[in-house]
Amino acid sequence: MRIFIIIIITLTMACSHEGDSIDTPVPPVAPMQQKILQHHGYDRLDEYYWIRDDFRQNEQVLKLLESENAYTNAVMKHTTELQQSLMHELSSRLPSVKKSVPIRRDGYLYFQEFLEDGQYPVYKRTLIDSLGETTLLDSNELSNGKIFYKIGNFSVSQDHKLLAFAEDEVSRGVFRIRIKNISENKYLADEILGVSSALAWASDNQTLFYVKKHPQTLLPYQVYRHKIEGGADNLVYEEIDKAFYTSIYLTRSKKYIAISNSSTDSSEILLVDAKDPTTSPKIFLKREVGHEYRIRHHDDYFYVLTNWNARNYRLMRVQANKIGTRQYWEEIIEHRNMVLIEDFEIFDDYLVLAERYQGLTRFRVINQNTSAERFISFSEPTYSAKIHANPNSQSTSLRYSYSSLTTPTSIFEYDLHTGESNLLQVDNIFGDFNDSNYRSERIVFKARDGIEVPISLVYRKDKFTSGYNAGYLHAYGAYGYSSQAAFQSRRLSLLDRGFVIAIIHVRGGEEMGRYWYDEGRLLRKKNTFNDFVDGTRALVKRRYINPAKVFAAGASAGGLLMGVVANEAPELYRGIIARVPFVDLVTTMLDESIPLTSGEYSEWGDPNQKRYFDYMLSYSPYDQVKAQMYPNMLVTTGLHDSRVQYFEPVKWVSRLRRLKRDKNLLLLHIDMNTGHHGASDNYFSFRRDALEYAFILDVLGKR
């Protein structure tokens, strides 16, 4: 049992010291109210524990946050013109009007559109062979008068008459469901609060399934069935294991409502007959520790992407009337040690696999009648390719998206019969952008343990001089998420100023297969940090970047990475940008009342076990802050963040400011209106990017 010994030490907020210039901004000094946290016989002092306020109402806390923002604004005031110029750059590259490629669902084409002067998408549809458009949802109108607004998901009933949508007005990922009669353009009285964004309609077009979130942990855990204007909702399923997240979806065949339960390394799916939505769910396959699977229903079979005896996954199938056991599973695509199956799509005559081979994605197309196969491969050295929306299993074409560090996102349609790809749309980048001005590369370096780690990088050819350029390096390295070498127009503001931008594909993602993830989590997590540091040194040694002009950036779990490298290798970086950083690892993972904590044990470890406690403590950024030199640092967070609570970066900055032994910048910006993903509209998201880039350029003395 944890024992808390509270020692209150009251300090005043900072004031100007004698001799300071009246124009020199003075950083806030957070009061210390020391608390000793005891666990496994070890005492940890947390002098800033008091900054946690779950209700976001404590006046002392809010005053501290406002002081931090005021200090950042004062320090960056001389860059106001630069920030405005950057915002103009960022916004002017995007078209004033943008329309997505329509997706056919039955007799309708569904698409979204950004209208001139609109900051949010408008969702529309049109009948096939009709010029008339119907506006389903206009996010610009719905967001009117709101500081934050996001439509997390919407779903149209199977008869295409009703539309259910989930909206968030607070930025904590807790949604409200509303329902609209499309033909009458009228919102129904039905309203459901405190839910996730998952939605699924039954075949009767009157029954909607949704997932309730736990009011404290915010875990999605209860599946309910809602009858339109039909009284009380019925509980269908409740997940009692806090390590699992519950979601729902309608299978592409429209025959089943799937209840999906997943943890970091386990899966379980239950099925409800969409034509008989009041029946009890049937388990497709019970959960097992370490077994992950996904399913697609097609004809009379379920196709199963599974890691059962297959670290990099294999594809199997089972007849729909023989679920509940693996006894009847048959293998369709075998496991391969060097190839990770990321995704798949099933058509009447073809099977398509998204495979990651040697760190890059390719599409494998198999004719199910002849077993003949071909690959869709790409010529650029590094890129991102994904299977796009393909709702019709009878289709003879495959939609996929492609992007690279020099190629804007493009949507292709691939003829499964002829093997030809047709470009449907490419994102327009306004201004003087020309992809031939830029070069992307993929290099490999050896980490300190001898493992070869890839780096994707890009630079402007006429701005590159060996050993001279500033570097902007970033990584994520967690949850098996592979950092995509995809195009981002905002990067042009750095590339056109001579920066080399590099993505270090550290262990913890799945770029090189499932083992890449396993080698960067739990008791091997330090590989992630070592890879980033070693990758930085490799880029300097190969003269891609100037060692005096290196900047590192990461968000969330990537922000934890930034916290570690700031502690362990501060001399390598001129500046570090940490966005919504997960930095108080041990304290958070010991507190199951904090949203998402218990579901993270398979990723970081359970600190209630001493071996994990010791290992996590040895790198936890907040716990390992030292009295040493640190680089220039910009830290950003959102007050309403439900994934990485605002108090983690605020505590971290407070301790850094007290202990660091340098005069470099340490700035903290708290968005008082948003959460983990920042602003919901383009304008405010550009403002965050402009602040970050202005910080970097100002440190370098550049414009």
Structure notes:
- With 703 residues, the chain is an alpha+beta fold.
- Helix content is 17%, strand content 35%.
- Among the domains are: 106-340, 7 Propeller (Methylamine Dehydrogenase, Chain H); 341-431.
- The strands form 8 sheets. It has an 8-stranded mixed sheet, with helices on both faces.
- A hairpin with a 2-residue loop joins strand 25 (350-357) and strand 26.
- Helix 2 (80-92) crosses helix 12 (682-700).
- The model is unreliable at 1-22 (pLDDT under 50).
SSE topology sketch:
Layout: E1 3-6, E2 35-39, E3 42-46, H1 59-75, H2 80-92, E4 98-99, E5 103-105, E6 108-114, E7 122-127, E8 134-138, H3 139-142, E9 150-156, E10 162-168, E11 175-181, E12 186-201, E13 207-213, E14 220-227, E15 234-238, E16 245-250, E17 256-262, E18 267-273, E19 282-285, E20 293-298, E21 301-306, E22 314-319, E23 330-333, E24 339-346, E25 350-357, E26 360-367, E27 373-376, E28 383-387, E29 397-404, E30 410-415, E31 421-426, E32 438-446, E33 452-460, E34 471-474, H4 492-495, E35 500-504, H5 514-518, H6 526-541, E36 550-555, H7 557-568, E37 575-579, H8 585-589, H9 601-604, H10 610-617, E38 632-638, H11 647-659, E39 666-671, H12 682-700
Parallel strand pairs: 34-35, 34-36, 36-37, 37-38, 38-39
Antiparallel strand pairs: 1-2, 2-3, 4-6, 5-6, 6-7, 7-8, 9-10, 10-11, 11-12, 12-13, 13-14, 14-15, 16-17, 17-18, 18-19, 20-21, 21-22, 22-23, 24-25, 25-26, 26-27, 28-29, 29-30, 30-31, 32-33, 33-35
Helix pairs in contact: 2-12
